[in-house]
């Protein structure tokens, strides 16, 4: 949760610092441009950027690669130009002796400067977002052959420029651009800043989508903006919150210096947490040799610890911002996940047994009405207690009842033929079914095909398969299932097999006709809306967590029918209060 929260915080800071630093370059062209004007121009660009998120990046994404290629070509070329023009002797900086001398000479100042050095590698912590659109190999190739060489050339050229212009440290980038290339470079820089912001915003949407799939984030609407690329999603609520946060940070901090302090802490925290999780993967999944794990922790961990200690030095100079973001987001995620699990376990402990279901069905006061009812519940195993509450208050049961649980699995895709899992409740005369609908976190729900139509068709297939598997021919102590040839070819066995097959056909037709008639009578969607309150024996902390924090989130966030896109005219909510 901490890592996810820090990435979301990174998604707020990246657009701010990228756009503000790019727009700030216009000061080199005119002295009339004030700091307030730069801030307002940056805010206007950010608003346009977030307002365009609903259209997705699929339609304009084809222009991203050429712009970024031009960007890397320009900064690399300008770096080479400055290197030869000003001071080629900076190549001696590759000798590690100079960094040792620097730390011996500057001591504390050198350690503090590492907080600025870390900004040179920002962006690499967001590579996970690109994995949703590209292969790992393509990212490795582009990083090693284009991005890294261009950055090394750019920073080497700027170092050479600073050797002759030591007073221009704060505006090195735009000051080092040759005059004839200033405006083209300014336009490309703004475009690249927007693209970098877009990548981080998309990464934020992606990680929230996966957190939602794992039950670690409150319900929000996921909109897939591309039919071709499954990883491109848009979350309206999160988008507007990010926009407001970016506007607030840009207007409040106003300069890239303070935002940079916050940005550095967010980036290094994400990198450190990623490395920590890699250690777990090495131990639990890769089964790596313990010596390699220790070496990894000592080398990578020590480097990241030094950088982390450096950026934390500027905690009071804006560095507190990402930690504040993380604290708020972690609180929201913890409250939601904690109560969500408590509620699920409550339903699991109080689920209706098969014996109790038979008693309910045998109740003479319960009447069956024509129609098919889909009862939505979070419970995977068994029938939720809210069903009994419904029957007690509305003593009527539809002719066909399907308990539906929609679950997101921690895998990328679920095969279409494995998506619907059915099970029939006994006795069969009740026509009560359990259905688990499984989605991966990159699966797209086909909006062209009705969900209820697909579920009904799969239900019919299940009924057919279930009837054929349940009919066996027992003769002379042997069994012959459908499709098997009798072993002795006896006519009597053949006649019995034929009779059983005819009975199967009749049973299948009768069962399918029941489902068809129920669908023709009408399909009703029953939503189990359970309210949760803390039990009387609960302590003050648990009361605050459940009665106030969780219920506040639930009331102000998207409801179930909006997530499932259930038609309102055929929807009925069934409420019940759980004491946790």
Q: Can you walk through the features of this model?
A:
- About 0% of the residues have low confidence.
- With about 575 residues, the chain is of the alpha/beta class.
- About 60% of the residues lie in helices and about 10% in strands.
- Strands 5-6-4-3-9-10 form a six-stranded mixed beta sheet, sandwiched between helices. The chain has a two-stranded antiparallel sheet with strand order 1-2. A two-stranded antiparallel sheet has the order 7-8.
- The radius of gyration is 31 Å and the shape is elongated.
- It is built from 19 helices and ten strands.
What order do the helices and strands come in, and which of them pair?
Elements (H helix, E strand, L loop, with lengths): L1 H23 L10 H17 L12 H22 L11 H10 L1 H10 L9 H5 L4 H29 L7 H4 L6 H32 L9 E2 L8 E2 L1 H18 L2 H29 L5 H23 L7 H30 L4 H9 L4 E10 L8 H9 L2 E14 L10 E5 L7 E9 L10 H20 L2 E3 L2 E3 L10 H31 L1 E11 L6 H17 L3 H5 L6 E9 L1
Parallel strand pairs: 3-4, 3-9, 4-6, 9-10
Antiparallel strand pairs: 1-2, 5-6, 7-8
Helix pairs in contact: 1-2, 1-9, 1-10, 1-11, 1-13, 2-10, 3-7, 3-9, 4-5, 5-12, 11-12, 11-13, 13-18, 16-17
């Amino acid at each position: 949760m901490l890592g996810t929260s820090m990435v979301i915080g990174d998604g707020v800071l990246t657009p701010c610092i990228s756009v503000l630093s790019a727009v700030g370059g216009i000061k080199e062209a005119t002295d009339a441009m004030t700091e307030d004007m730069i801030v307002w121009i940056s805010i206007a660009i950010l608003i346009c950027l977030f307002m365009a998120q609903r259209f997705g990046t699929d339609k304009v994404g084809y222009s991203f690669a050429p712009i970024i290629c031009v960007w890397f070509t320009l900064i690399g070329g300008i770096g080479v130009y400055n290197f030869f023009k000003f001071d080629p002797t900076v190549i001696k900086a590759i000798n590690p002796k100079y960094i040792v001398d620097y730390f011996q000479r500057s001591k504390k100042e050198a350690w503090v400067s590492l907080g600025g050095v870390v900004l040179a590698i920002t962006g690499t912590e967001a590579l996970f977002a690109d994995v949703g659109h590209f292969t790992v190999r393509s990212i490795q190739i582009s990083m090693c052959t284009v991005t890294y060489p261009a950055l090394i050339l750019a920073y080497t050229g700027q170092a050479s420029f600073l050797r002759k212009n030591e007073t221009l440290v704060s505006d090195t980038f735009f000051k080092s651009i040759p005059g004839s290339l200033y405006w083209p470079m300014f336009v490309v820089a703004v475009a690249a800043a927007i693209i970098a912001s877009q990548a981080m915003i998309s990464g934020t949407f992606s990680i929230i989508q996966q957190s939602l799939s794992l039950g670690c984030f409150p319900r929000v609407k996921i909109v897939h903006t591309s039919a071709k690329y499954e990883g491109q999603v848009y979350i309206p609520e999160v988008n507007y919150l990010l926009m407001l946060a970016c506007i607030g940070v840009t207007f409040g901090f106003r300069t890239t210096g303070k935002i940079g302090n916050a940005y550095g802490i967010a980036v290094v925290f994400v990198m450190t947490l990623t490395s920590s999780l890699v250690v777990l993967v090495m131990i639990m999944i890769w089964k790596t040799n313990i010596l390699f794990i220790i070496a990894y922790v000592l080398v990578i961990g020590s480097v990241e610890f030094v950088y982390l200690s450096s950026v934390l030095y500027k905690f009071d100079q804006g560095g507190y911002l990402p930690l504040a973001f993380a604290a708020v987001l972690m609180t929201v995620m913890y409250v939601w996940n904690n109560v969500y699990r408590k509620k699920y376990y409550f339903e699991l402990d109080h689920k209706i047994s098969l014996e109790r279901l038979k008693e309910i069905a045998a109740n003479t006061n319960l009447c069956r009405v024509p129609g098919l009812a889909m009862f939505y519940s979070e419970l995977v195993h068994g029938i939720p207690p809210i069903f009994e509450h419904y029957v007690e208050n509305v003593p009527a049961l539809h002719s066909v009842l399907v308990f539906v649980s929609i679950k997101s699995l921690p895998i990328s895709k679920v095969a279409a033929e494995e998506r619907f899992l059915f099970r029939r409740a006994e006795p069969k005369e009740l026509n009560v079914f359990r259905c688990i609908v499984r989605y991966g976190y990159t699966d797209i729900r086909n909006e062209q095909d009705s969900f209820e139509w697909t579920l009904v068709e799969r239900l019919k297939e299940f009924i057919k398969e279930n009837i054929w598997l349940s009919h066996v021919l027992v003769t002379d102590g042997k069994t012959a299932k459908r499709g098997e040839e009798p072993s002795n070819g006896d006519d009597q066995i053949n006649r019995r097999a034929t009779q059983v097959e005819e009975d199967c056909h009749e049973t299948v037709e009768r069962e399918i006709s029941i489902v068809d008639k129920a669908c023709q009578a009408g399909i009703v969607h029953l939503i189990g809306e359970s309210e949760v309150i803390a039990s009387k024996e609960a302590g003050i902390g648990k009361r605050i967590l459940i009665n106030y924090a969780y219920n506040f989130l639930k009331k102000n966030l998207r409801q179930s029918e909006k997530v499932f896109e259930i038609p309102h005219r055929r929807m009925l909510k069934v409420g019940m209060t759980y004491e946790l």
